[in-house]
Structure formats: structure tokens, C-alpha cells
Design brief:
The chain is α/β, with parallel strands linked by helices. Helix content is 39%, strand content 14%. It folds into two domains: 12-16 and 278-389, Aspartate Aminotransferase, domain 1 (Alpha-Beta Complex); 25-276, Type I PLP-dependent aspartate aminotransferase-like (Major domain) (Aspartate Aminotransferase, domain 2, 3-Layer(aba) Sandwich). The protein contains twelve helices and 13 strands. The strands form three sheets. The protein has a seven-stranded mixed beta sheet with strand order 2-8-7-6-5-3-4, with helices on both faces. The protein has a four-stranded antiparallel beta sheet with strand order 9-10-13-12, with helices on one face. A two-stranded parallel sheet has the order 1-11. Helix 2 crosses helix 8 (261-277), helix 3 runs parallel beside helix 4 (108-121) and helix 10 (327-338) crosses helix 12 (374-389). The chain binds pyridoxal-5'-phosphate. Pyridoxal-5'-phosphate binds at residues 81-83, 107, 109, 155, 159, 184, 186-187, 207, 219, 348.
């Protein structure tokens, strides 16, 4: 039995793969305090406060470079989010006549820029399928490489299945063929470590508002030493202002206009908060809970769990369907009757759902976060049991 949800019960938020919620209060409060102290245009003025704001931005680039195991803080480029970073990289690297390899696990933030370049410039791309365990086989990936392949793109973790990809193995094969590898770490960053230089990755795109626990509106593209990305937007950088040519040194080459200082402060504080809380311990706790959720759901005959049994470095994300039900209906009942927020539909990764056979119904995605408790999971299991039993 499960008690009916009342308006006084707190929301059980299991949509952390969309955005983490709630954000750590200390991050939000300190963000506003620091912005109130140094919230001027960083590096654009000769006065002390502008220099102080610029120093904060530079220190944050340094923190981010270290977080992703990247060699050069000047090659940390601030963007609006992962979508923006992926567009910046893809459109700054790929041109007419080029070929790109990616995977069928990708989010629309990779698929749509590729499709756009295909339609506009005739860029060719191949999407490598994922295996039954939800991972991409590095050898299969390598077989799709062509002499004209300009770029390879792989998401570190699937936003639907929660599976992580063997990035070092894929990077090794790309490196052997002289093809740069761009990794989409939108889902993984903040859950599991990243080692750009050690893994041989050329660039990583991230977003601040998911497991990194920062605010929305800030993300970035972190480049290794050897990757050249052309500017695709142009404007003020605060340096070389006499020239009509956009600044070509990094990070300004890929940044134009006033930076999102409030977001940069937020990401700096969020990284500190992650380190204090212990990213590894939080992840282990989340993985224990997602296994409990999986065990509960696989025992229900009317529920099909599409995410494979999670490995230690997968993400606390689980997608399932309920026989004969549209995922939106399941989500609406979870919300209205049981006070549980999940994400339903195609999760902006339509090809994953096509391959799972869930395009028509969509999937019900549970994604856990730093504040998820065992009570939340047990409540979700009981709610799903009650929904599945309605079908009997
Ligand atoms: C795998 C993946 N890549 C990219 C994105 C885009 O992130 P953002 O919306 O912050 O740009 C998402 C968001 O859900 C995602 O799951």
C-alpha cells in the first residue's frame, strides 16, 4: 500500500538528469554575495574591481581545467551550456567535404548540428550503434573512421540509459587515425571523473546545471593543446580592440561579448561544493539507490527496464516503460497521485528510443541526485507498483 500524496508532502524530485534540484543553498547564497561584491565587467576596465573580477574568471578557468584533467586554463571557453559548447566545437571544426563519426546514443545537441551541416554544407556523418549493454564498441567505432573523417563525437554517458562509454579506448583509436575526439560530458560531469589529457581526448563540452550542481546558463568547452577551433561568432573581447579581426588567442577566440560572471561564480562555488561533499562518495550512494530502484522495478511484470544493470561508473539514471501505457501518462500519474517528478518522452535522444523500440510510448526516466534518499526510491517503487497493478 502507498499513502495518497497530499499538497503538503514535499516533491520527490527524480529528474536530476534534466537539471539538478535543489541546488546547494550555500552555492546560491554565496553566488549572490560574491556577485554583489565583484559584479563588474571582467577585464574590460583598468580599475581594480574589473581586474579582481577578471582574476576570479581566470581562477575559475584554472579550476575547470584541473577538474577535467586538461593542460591549459586558457583553453577553457565559457559558453551558455553544453549545447552551445557542442555547437561551438562542431561548427568551428567541420566544413564542407568533411566526415564526422558519432553514435546513436547522442543527444539532439550533437545530432541536430550535424544534421544542419549535412543539409547546409553536405557534411557526411555516420552514427555508430550501441551494443545490447548500452555501450559503444571501440572497434566498431574505429571501423567507421574514414580518411576524410574530421571529427569524432561521443557522449560520455547516455542521458537515457545511464551507461558510460569507454572513452579512453575510443580516444586511442581516434588518436591512431589522427582524428580529434570531442566528448559530450553534459551528463557525466559531476558524477564521475574526467581525464582529458590522460585519456587522449581533444575536447570536452560540459554544462553547469546538471550534476555539477551549478546554475543554468553556464557551461563550457575545454580544449586540449592541439585542437584548433575556428571562431564562429565575433564581437568584443576587451583586447585587440583596434582590429576588425576577432581576437585569435584562446579563450577569446571562442568567446564574444560580456561573460556570464554570475554563472562563472556559480560554477566555481559548485566545484568547491562537489569537492567538499566528495563526488565519489555521493556517486556511490546514488548508484546504491539506483540499483535498489532497478531491483524493485524488474520484479514488476508490467514494467520493462531498458537501462542495463548499472556498473560502478555508470550514472544513476534508469529508463523504463509500463506495458500498454504512454510514458507521459505514467509521468502525469507519478506527479499528480504520488508527488514524484520524472522526465518522460524521448529525452532529446530520439535514436536511442528508436533502437529500444520506445519511440511511440517514450520512456519514463528516473534520474537520481545528491539529495535523493532511500525513502524517495522506496516511494517511487511503491508508486510504480500501484500504477502497474492498475493494469491487472
Ligand atoms: C547527453 C547530453 N548532452 C547535451 C545536453 C544538453 O545540455 P544543455 O541543455 O545544458 O545544453 C544534455 C541535456 O540533457 C544531455 O543529456
Amino acid at each position: 500500500m502507498i499513502d495518497a500524496h497530499t499538497d503538503n508532502d514535499p516533491l520527490i524530485y527524480l529528474d536530476n538528469a534534466a537539471t539538478s534540484f535543489p541546488k546547494p543553498r550555500e552555492v546560491l547564497e554565496r553566488m549572490v554575495e560574491i556577485y554583489a561584491e565583484i559584479g563588474v565587467s571582467p577585464g574590460r576596465g583598468s580599475y581594480d574591481l574589473s581586474t579582481e573580477a577578471a582574476a576570479f574568471v581566470a581562477a575559475t578557468r584554472d579550476k575547470i581545467a584541473r577538474f577535467f584533467g586538461a593542460p591549459d586554463p586558457d583553453r577553457v571557453v565559457f559558453t551558455v551550456n553544453a549545447t552551445d559548447a557542442l555547437n561551438l566545437a562542431i561548427q568551428g571544426i567541420v566544413t564542407t567535404g568533411d566526415h564526422v563519426i558519432s553514435t546513436r546514443l547522442e543527444h539532439n545537441s550533437v545530432l541536430r548540428p550535424l544534421f544542419h551541416l549535412h543539409e547546409r554544407d553536405g557534411v557526411e556523418f555516420d552514427l555508430v550503434p550501441f551494443e545490447a549493454d548500452g555501450t559503444v564498441d571501440p572497434d566498431r567505432f574505429a571501423r567507421a573512421l574514414r580518411p576524410e573523417t574530421k571529427l569524432a563525437i561521443v557522449s560520455h554517458a547516455s542521458s537515457v540509459l545511464g551507461t558510460t562509454q569507454p572513452i579512453p579506448e575510443i580516444a586511442r583509436r581516434c588518436g591512431g587515425a589522427g582524428v580529434p575526439l570531442l566528448v559530450d560530458a553534459a551528463q557525466s560531469a559531476g558524477h564521475i571523473p574526467f581525464a582529458l589529457s590522460d585519456w587522449g581526448v581533444s575536447a570536452v563540452a560540459f554544462t553547469g546545471h546538471k550534476a555539477l550542481l551549478g546554475p543554468s546558463g553556464i557551461g563550457g568547452l575545454v580544449l586540449g593543446r592541439d585542437l584548433a577551433v575556428a571562431s564562429t561568432r565575433f564581437g568584443g573581447t576587451g583586447i585587440d580592440s583596434h582590429s576588425l579581426r576577432h581576437t585569435q588567442s584562446y579563450p577569446h577566440r571562442l568567446e564574444a561579448g560580456t561573460l556570464n560572471l554570475l554563472g562563472i561564480i556559480g560554477i566555481a562555488l559548485a566545484l568547491e561544493c562537489l569537492a567538499t561533499e566528495g563526488m565519489e562518495q555521493t556517486h556511490e550512494r546514488e548508484m546504491t539507490l539506483v540499483r535498489r530502484l532497478r531491483d524493485g522495478l524488474v520484479a514488476m511484470p508490467a514494467v520493462t527496464v531498458h537501462s542495463p544493470p548499472p556498473r560502478a561508473d555508470d550514472l544513476p539514471v534508469l529508463t523504463c516503460t509500463v506495458d500498454g501505457m504512454d510514458s507521459d501518462d505514467v509521468g502525469a500519474i507519478l506527479d499528480a497521485d504520488y508527488g514524484i517528478a520524472v522526465r518522460t518522452g524521448l529525452h532529446c535522444a530520439p535514436l536511442v528510443h528508436r533502437d529500444l523500440g520506445t519511440v511511440q510510448t517514450g520512456g519514463v526516466r528516473f534520474s537520481l541526485g545528491a539529495t535523493t534518499t532511500q525513502h524517495d526510491i522506496d516511494h517511487a517503487i511503491a508508486a510504480m507498483r500501484a500504477i502497474a497493478e492498475r493494469l491487472l
